[in-house]
Design brief:
Blueprint: H1 7-12, H2 19-46, H3 50-68, H4 72-86, H5 93-114, H6 132-174
Length: about 180
């Protein structure tokens, strides 16, 4: 079954008409979080903070896995920490655009997590595993999320606390 909207609309303001849309938006959220994970990791390495880079990579990547599995918590925490991180980062259009995409990702995850109409269109799209890409985006998140969900909650809570502490320290310094 084809997607019901174009790629740009589904990225910026998605809607869900059928099970294929639910699956597509989950995969899209996974890739967006993976992109943020790799970008943040590279920037952390370049700034001389490799351990922070690994922590951030795990946080955003596993958040993407949660989004792929329609976890509202993962989508909320990823957006919150990206916005909080924006206070420490150099502002720019790419950061604003990515923040908007993550907000859209939260909306899509929220809709997908609660979308269960009783019709033939609600049948979820099958998750294939024929290619390496399909294994990576379809099969791996389904397998790993139940195993890392609780550790991710701990990881993200620690990350939230550290970020909040950092924000308070910065605000105190400037007050």
């Amino acid at each position: 079954m084809p997607r019901t909207e174009g790629r740009v609309k589904s990225l910026l303001w998605p809607s869900i008409q059928n099970g294929n849309d639910v699956d597509y938006l989950g995969a899209q959220g996974y890739w967006v979080c993976a992109l943020v994970a790799v970008g943040s990791f590279v920037l952390s390495i370049m700034s001389g903070h490799p351990y922070v880079g690994v922590y951030v990579l795990l946080f955003y990547y596993l958040g993407g896995v949660g989004v792929r599995e329609h976890s509202r918590y993962a989508a909320v925490v990823v957006l919150l920490l990206y916005v909080a991180d924006s206070f420490f980062a150099v502002p720019g259009p790419a950061r604003v655009i990515m923040g908007g995409v993550l907000l859209s990702n939260l909306r899509a995850t929220w809709i997908a997590a609660s979308w269960k109409p009783e019709s033939n269109e609600a049948i979820p799209a099958p998750r294939f595993g024929d290619t390496w890409s399909e294994q990576f985006v379809d099969k791996f998140p389904t397998w790993i999320w139940p195993k890392v969900r609780i550790p991710y909650y701990v990881l993200s809570t620690v990350f939230l606390a550290m970020t909040a502490l950092g924000l308070v320290m910065v605000l105190r310094k400037h007050a």
